[in-house]
Amino acid sequence: MKKILIIGKRGFIGNNLSKYLKKFYNVKHIGFKDLKKFRSKINDFNFIINTSINKNYIINKYNEKFDNDLKISKLIDNKKTIYSFISTRKVYPNKANLTENTKLLPKSNYSKNKIITEQKLLRNLKNNLIILRVSNIIGDKSLTKKIHRTFIDIFFENIKKGIVQDNGDVFKDFLSIDKFCQIFKNIIKNNLVGIYNVSIGQRVYLNDLIKWLNKFNKKKLKEIKIISKNDSFYLNNKKLMSKIKITNSLEDLKRYCYQLSKNKFT
Question: 101 phi and psi, to 5 degrees?
Answer without folding.
Answer: -95, 0
